Amino acid sequence: MQTEPTLFVMNHISWFDVPVLASQQPLHFLSKAEIKKWPLIGWLANRAGTLFIQRGTHGAAQKSLEEITECLQSGGSVVIFPEGTTTDGTTVKRFHGRLLQSAIDAGVKVQPIALRYPHEDGVNPLVPYIDDMTFMDSLLGLTRASPLEVELTFLTPISNHLNIHTTAEGNEVTARQLAQLAHTEVCTKICNSS
Fold first, then answer.
1. pLDDT at 78
2. Confidence (pTM)
């Protein structure tokens, strides 16, 4: 368990990813604002200190970046799903770097995490929350996914303290480069395990 403020970045498969990681590490999550309205999940997310992003509105990303940075500077840890959507768990989409700027601004490390729901077929097909699936369909799928195995792999942290991690030119690492480094770590684990 991390005790210092950290920005966790993880691939995203289902809404269930949030309680999985929360069971291992106290932290704040960034979630789309629609989650607030979900039965039970919205209430739990709000109680857990979730930071909500109103996607599609002017200035939403900048506001979220400021909230995450403030949370990290105040000693909290935050997890983001930089793919911006869920996948079926067999691939990892490109990581968007904008919100990783918060780690640079707060001077904290980035902790990549690879998440898998292993199954005899590679990835448990009852877990992904994708396409036009409803929350109820997802919930019912999870209840049928017995036993439900979860594999969380905490990969090599990417340090941003004191310019330790610099580019070949000697410049500070950028948010885009942090996203690429974290993506490579996560993708290597997921793609080699599926």
1. 92
2. 0.84
